[in-house]
Specification:
Elements lengths: L6 H23 L6 E3 L5 E3 H17 L4 E4 L12 E9 L1 H5 L6 E8 L2 E9 L4 E5 L5 E4 L11 E3 L10 E6 L5 H7 L4 E7 L3 H7 L5 E4 L5 H13 L3 E4 L18 E4 L9
Length: 269
């Protein structure tokens, strides 16, 4: 790919790959049983993770052979470094998947110079599809999610927080006392739990105002959701100092962060 990126083509490929991977994931999800194994870090992996990864990787490498591809399920890709790269989590929220809770997503993002500039988040069990368009504006698509035919698309936007209190979303599987203590610094109207990168999308659509994460994540967990949040007018910053959150870090490991609508007055840790 040349320096001038055809973002329309990028997003067509990302969208199609996410939808096709989502269909494969749902085949496993609807089965009577499936195998669950533990990876070296004790996190779970299923045949759905691996099948989705194979499908997405093959598609992206065929379409964008000159762009570095980093994907969670391929450890050898984690040693790569580039100013521009595609980063993939083929099934974010495997714990939700295993427990059949539905809060899992397919995530694909394009990162340029530390910034996730385009991305797609598809939650097949929830039947929700979010992505940035060619211009970087975030949208939610409804309809049948045909890989080829695009359904009705609505731009999404963060909302101005209500004076009565914030709508806060936190991790369903990783919430802890430190997270609750930080949330307690804010006036809260409602607190909900959600899995995977859906939390970014809830802030992006105005269904939530604040998503703090005081726990371990990797860049493939956050890049696509971050791209959608940015494209909807939201922000993501480092937890400790509220400075810009960047990508392409060594090993693709994240620190703690806060994702939020700009109307939220961030509290210090």
């Amino acid at each position: 790919m040349e320096a001038d990126v055809d973002y329309d083509h990028v997003m067509r490929v990302f969208r199609e790959a996410a939808i096709d991977a989502g269909a494969r994931i749902m085949e496993v999800y609807r089965a009577d049983d499936f195998d669950v194994r533990a990876k070296s870090d004790d996190s779970p992996v299923t045949e759905a993770d691996e099948a989705a990864d194979a499908l997405i990787s093959a598609r992206l490498r065929a379409e964008f052979p000159d762009i570095v591809l980093v994907t969670e399920e391929q450890a050898d890709s984690h040693a790569q470094s580039a100013a521009r790269f595609i980063i993939v989590d083929p099934l974010d929220g495997t714990k939700e998947f295993v427990q059949r809770r539905g809060d899992f997503t397919v995530n694909i993002a394009l990162v340029e110079n530390g910034v996730p500039v385009r991305g797609v988040v598809y939650a097949p069990a929830k039947e929700r599809l979010f992505y940035t368009d060619a211009q970087g504006v975030s949208v939610e698509e409804t309809g049948a999610f045909d890989p080829v035919g695009i359904g009705p698309v609505t731009p999404i936007r963060v909302k101005q927080p209500e004076k009565a209190g914030l709508f806060v979303v936190a991790s369903k599987s990783h919430r802890d006392e430190a997270t609750d203590a930080y949330i307690a610094k804010y006036p809260v109207a409602d607190l909900k739990s959600a899995g995977s990168s859906l939390k970014f999308c809830l802030v992006a659509t105005g269904e939530a105002d604040l998503y703090p994460r005081l726990g371990r994540t990797m860049e493939w967990d956050t890049a696509a959701g971050d791209a959608i949040l940015r494209g909807a007018g939201g922000r993501m910053v480092r937890f400790e100092d509220h400075q810009i959150f960047t990508y392409g870090k060594p090993g693709y490991a994240n620190g703690f962060f806060i994702a939020y609508a700009p109307g939220v007055e961030l509290q210090t840790p």
